[in-house]
Amino acid sequence: MLHLRAVCPIDRTDQVLAALKEHPGVAHVLLFRGAAVDPAGDVVEADLAREATDEVVDALCGLGIDRRGGVTLEQIDTALSDAADRAEEAAPGEGADAVVWEELIARTGEESRLNVTFLSFLTIACLLAGVGVVTNSPVTLVGAMVVGPEFGPLAAIAVGLVLRRGDLVRRAGLALAVGFPLAMLVTFGGAVVGSYTGLFDRDMVLAAHQADFVFEVGPFSLIVALLAGAAGMLSMTSAKSAALVGVFISVTTVPAAGYAAIAAVLGEWAICGMSVLQLGVNLVGIVVAAAAVLGLRNRRKRTRDLGRPLSHG
Fold first, then answer.
1. Which residue pairs from 180-185 have beta carbons closer than 8 angstroms and sit at least 24 positions apart in sequence?
2. Which of 150, 243, 250, 308 is 20 to 30 A from 33 in CA distance terms?
3. Interior CA angle at 23 toward 92 and 296, to 5°?
């Protein structure tokens, strides 16, 4: 279930209470009159079955609560209540199958920001991938896959394409367009230093047969990317975040970027080119599959724009 808190203008409180009480997927409605200071008004709280959340949020936004007050949602890990059980049973559909669109937009919007944290994680992941290539260590390559934060922007692009949210697509596209070249450039610099100091040489890298899968582009590269994109979007929309770890490990985006940087330092331009191609295939495949899954999640017709413009705060 999800916990909802709405800051309501006083003249809208009764309508908000009526909307919550009328929906069978709502439980534990609370009212705190005059509790809100800025903006001034009442505070209404309730617990929602996940599959009822979109309808309730729509109703509140239809009353202008998002503009004149505010609506927040929080995940409830445990709810011991007969009323909550009845609400989940009465709400149409299954909670695991429900897509909370505002939650998805907020999550992907946050994870697609171009900031120091995103760039740091992507750069560290690319450096780890470079070390994995040089040392012929699949374990290090897997570590680089897990550390890489690139699925967030890829998911945001898919959401933006399906919902026609150009702001999401632009923000996520910028994060990837800046992040990957920067991470590869830093890895290139580290590889130059390592090469000149004798940490590795050309023969050592080319003998790394266990890392060859990183740049070997073929039909399975696209198949894996499509499956990973589908699984990743299912994970995000069903709130089963644990499955994302498997998605991270299955795709070779970051390892391909790291291998491209190492190959460039060694002058192996064919391998460098194949690594960049592998990176592109994986990025495109993930977005296509994620968008396809999202489009098939029975998205109903909305009467208002989904989500407000993403803030820059």
1. 180/122, 180/126, 180/150, 180/257, 180/279, 182/119, 182/122, 182/123, 183/119, 183/122, 183/123, 183/125, 183/126, 183/127, 183/254, 183/257, 184/126, 184/257, 184/258, 184/260, 184/261, 185/261
2. 308
3. 35
pLDDT exceeds cutoff 70 at 74 = yes
Counting every residue, how long is the chain?
313
**Which CATH number is 10's domain given?**
3.30.70.120
Is the model's pLDDT at 305 over the cut of 50? no
Quick check: is 72 in a domain?
Answer: yes
Give the DSSP H/E element, type plus range, for residue 19: helix 13-22
For 209-237, write each residue's pLDDT tens digit: 777 788 888 888 899 899 988 888 888 87
The Cα–Cα gap between 91 and 83 comes to 12
Global pTM reads 0.78
Closest C-alpha to 46, from 74, 80, 77: 74
Q: Would you give the end-to-end CA distance of the chain in angstroms? A: 28
Q: Is 25 helix (H, G, I), strand (E, B) or coil?
A: coil
On whether residue 94 sits in a domain, the answer given is: yes
pLDDT for the residue numbered 122: 95
Average pLDDT of the residues of the chain: 85
For residue 91, what are the domain limits? 2-98
